[in-house]
Amino acid sequence: MTERLVVKGLSKQYGTFNALAPTDLTLMAGETVILSGQNGSGKTTLLTCIANLVKPSSGSVTVDSYDMAVNEIEVRKRLVFVPDVQRFLCYHDGLGTLTLHCDGEQCPGRL
Fold first, then answer.
1. How far apart are CA 72 and CA 22, in angstroms?
2. Do the domain assignments include residue 107?
3. Does the residue 109 lie in any domain?
4. Is 89 within 8 Å of 95 (Cβ atoms)?
């Protein structure tokens, strides 16, 4: 199988607060993953760092062999983040947000 998402050593600190310890994750094509944990355990921080909505303190994110730090546009063509609670685009539901990001067309190759 092909590696679609590779996260290496991704971490986030706010001052002295360690919001996300260095994390590694690899998702292969067709895989589904569930993130579970207590409130404040870093689930949302991990996802927002992967989506580059929050800049990580360290580490790398690669989608379909494109490094987020080097080729963010190509990564954004392949990755969309739909949060459980809308923090932006409050007038859209999940489908509306996806439609907006896909320019009203299907999103081939999205994770």
1. 21
2. no
3. no
4. no
Q: pLDDT tens digits for 39-80?
A: 999 999 999 999 998 999 999 999 999 999 999 999 988 988
Look at the chain and report how many structural domains it folds into: 1
- CATH for 33: 3.40.50.300
Question: Tokens in use for 69?
Answer: 């730090």
Beta bridge partners of 91: none
Contacts of 47 (CB under 8 A, 6+ apart): 35, 81, 83
**Distance of alpha carbon 58 from alpha carbon 21, whole angstroms:** 10
Show the tokens assigned to 99. Answer: 């439609």
- The residue with tokens 């063509």 is 77
Look up the domain containing 54 and give its range: 3-101
